[in-house]
Design goal:
Blueprint lengths: L3 H22 L13 E2 L9 E3 L1 H4 L1 H4 L3 H10 L8 E7 L3 E6 L1 H14 L13 E5 L11 H19 L3 E8 L4 H17 L14 H14 L8 H26 L6 E4 H6 L2 H11 L3 E4 L2 E4 L10 E4 L8 H14 L4 E7 L5 H11 L7 E6 L2 E5 L2 E3 L11 H7 L2 H8 L8 E4 H5 L6 H21 L9 H4 L5 H11 L1 H10 L4 H20 L7 H25 L8
Parallel strand pairs: 5-6, 5-11, 6-7, 11-12, 13-15
Antiparallel strand pairs: 1-2, 2-4, 3-4, 8-9, 9-10, 13-14
Helix pairs in contact: 1-4, 5-19, 6-15, 6-20, 7-8, 7-9, 11-12, 12-13, 17-21, 17-22, 19-21, 19-22, 20-21, 21-22
The chain binds one RNA strand through strand 9, strand 10, helix 17 and helix 21.
RNA sequence: GCCCACGUAGCUCAGCAGGAUAGAGCACGAGCCUCCUAAGCCCGGGGUCGCACGUUCGAAUCGUGUCGUGGGUGCCA
């Protein structure tokens, strides 16, 4: 697969470097060491399609004014055979370049050749990545934060795949530890209440309707027989009944949200197999633990943490981080992923360095663990923050959100902002079918293109292909801008993957749509000139390909009609 | 107290391996369909890039300090 943009940038760097070296050899510039320089796209297009700061960077080296160095380079540069048709020195000493017509034509040909693979890259080929996301507490329904995490994690996994990673999605089921105890206790009390026992729910138990329903359904099946067994046995039976139902519910709801996982990993397996305990043993063997007040502590300060922390409580139970250490040890060492990404709420940020410290102590390369922290979601309706659902009075769940907002809109909106920024989710805007809604803006661009092809079919002049000669006819500013942006997609995917930031793809979709709409208003496809018509339809076709690919990464539909 | 993130237009946010006159959407005001979808395009006003120092040819971008917001700082997860 050919990345035309990278090829052009490579040519540019080589051109200026060669010219600079020639100048030094010829004595036009003094001998000096070559420094790193930048090749970039100027913010203001009046300054060309590309610019480089090579002359400015070397000003000190050569004890020469940047603009003079730039002109010396310019004199010795031969653009023939490259993707550049013109170069000039400008400003303080920038060298500005103009792309040649064949750059645009070749870009379209490369889009056509790659088809639905356009935008993919083999940057991380041969590497395996695991993205763990949502991992909602299985003791209750998913909330709005899980909705953001779901959209983010799933799209991120897709971005990583397209950047070459062999990617898997995983849900970590927290079916061990305190919250399960609390779950059992809550079910237990609801069960007893069901039979008239006046026992009350403690403050910190789960008060949701779902717990009452589970207890009632359990009572329906088993009657009051569990009133007569030990509390521990009763709780265990209740958990064994309700937990699988909850997990199945999570799976079902996430599927509605277009998310399916490769694996559902149970925390309990880490306890049962002794792997959690093994972590503490290993750390102790390596001398990274000590006992104090009956608890086992990890020497986290030695690994850059603020404080040491407890691994095993004085009551003999492990703290929550121990199974987490075992879990990540499993990801990186036992299953051998090259990259493990955790998508977590920002309230977990203090925990990340501690987990990494423990992994480092175990001899694991903690750099392979990357954590994407996302800030809280602020739901907005009628310009005001919504905290609770009107119907239930409880926090709004993923399911109730999806009752109200189209899935595509939800997934798109949650990926509009970088993970680490607070996110306002405007319920009114998300359902609005108007120009204000960015989801429709992108989908409309796609539908418009499809409509053009339908019209051409109807009028008896369907698109039958485009040669490079025909593609060279695309010289309008709107055409060139659109093609130029198409050429950046492979690099954009790579940078989204490197930054673990799928929101770049959302922004790409919006910008691409915008450039298409501009082109559409400026240039008619249905023109008399058959060559120009072929070229413009080809541009439409390539735009549709790229837009569909990007929307596909977000799992947003690309409709043919709107 | 200490640690982390964030602070850019009225609102929501891009830009931040330092570069040329700081951008977009929304909102507000004015235009564009006898012609491929007006869910579109186009023009306009709007800014002390929180504040102050520092690094440099050059800082929204890097560093230090400071103020503001949110989060963390449990033998909770």
């Amino acid at each position: 697969m050919t990345d035309i943009m990278k090829r052009a940038e490579g040519q540019l760097a080589a051109l200026v470097k060669t010219a600079l070296c020639d100048a030094m050899e010829a004595g036009a510039l003094p001998q000096a060491e070559l420094l790193d320089f930048k090749v970039e796209i100027p913010a203001d297009r009046k300054n060309g399609d590309y610019s480089t700061n090579i002359a400015m960077v070397h000003a000190r080296q050569f004890r020469t004014a940047p603009i003079k160095i730039a002109n010396t380079i310019l004199e010795r540069m031969d653009l023939s055979g490259s993707y550049f048709s013109h170069a000039e020195a400008a400003g303080a000493g920038f060298l500005n370049f103009t792309l040649s017509p064949s750059y645009y034509a070749d870009t379209l040909l490369s889009v056509e050749e790659a088809g639905e693979k356009y935008g993919c890259s083999d940057l991380f080929k041969g590497k395996r990545a695991l993205v763990e996301f949502v991992s909602a507490n299985p003791t209750g329904p998913m909330h709005i934060g899980n909705a953001r995490g779901g959209a983010l994690g799933d799209s991120l996994a897709e971005v990583l795949s397209r950047a070459g990673y062999e990617t898997e999605r995983e849900f970590y089921i927290n079916d061990g530890g305190n919250q399960i105890e609390k779950f059992g206790l809550s079910l237990d009390i609801r069960y007893r209440q069901h039979f008239g026992d006046p026992v009350e729910m403690p403050e910190d138990s789960y008060h949701g309707q779902d717990i009452i329903d589970h207890a009632a359904a359990f009572a329906e099946i088993h009657g009051d027989k569990y009133l007569h067994v030990s509390e521990a046995e009763r709780r265990q039976a209740l958990i064994a009944y309700a937990l699988p139902l909850n997990i199945a519910g999570l799976e079902r709801d996430l599927k509605k949200y277009k998310i399916t996982y490769d694996t559902w990993f149970k925390e309990s397996t880490l306890h049962e197999s002794g792997k959690a305990a093994k972590m503490v043993e290993l750390l102790t063997e390596k001398g990274w633990t000590y006992e104090l007040d009956g608890a086992v502590w990890f020497k986290a300060e030695q690994f850059g943490c603020e404080k040491d922390f407890v691994l095993r409580r004085s009551n003999g139970f492990y703290t929550y981080i121990v199974p987490d250490i075992a879990y990540h040890y499993n990801k990186l060492c036992e299953r051998g992923f090259d990259l493990a990404v955790d998508v977590l709420g920002a309230d977990h940020h203090g925990y990340v360095p501690r987990l990494k410290a423990a992994l480092t102590a175990l001899g694991v390369d903690a750099e392979k663990l990357q954590v994407v922290l996302m800030q809280m979601v602020n739901l907005v309706r009628n310009g005001e923050t919504v905290k609770l659902s009107k119907r239930s009075g409880k926090a709004i769940t993923l399911v109730t959100l999806l009752d109200e907002v189209p899935i595509d809109a939800a997934r798109f909106f949650f990926n509009m902002r970088e993970a680490n920024t607070h996110c306002d989710f405007d319920l009114d805007l998300a359902v609005e079918q108007s120009s204000q809604n960015p989801v429709y803006y992108c989908q409309y661009a796609h539908a418009r293109i499809c409509s053009i092809f339908r019209k051409m079919e109807e009028s008896g002049t369907p698109f039958t292909g485009c040669t490079k000669e025909q593609a060279l006819l695309l010289t309008a500013a709107e055409e060139k801008e659109l093609i130029r942006y198409l050429s950046t997609l492979p690099t954009e995917v790579e940078s989204a993957a490197k930054a673990l930031d799928p929101s770049r793809m959302t922004r790409y979709a919006m910008e691409l749509s915008s450039l298409f709409h501009k082109f559409y208003n400026a240039c008619r496809c249905n023109v008399e000139d058959a060559d120009l018509r072929a070229a413009r339809l080809f541009l439409c076709r390539c735009t549709r390909t790229a837009l569909a690919n990007v929307l596909g990464m977000l799992k947003v539909d690309a409709p043919e009609n709107m």
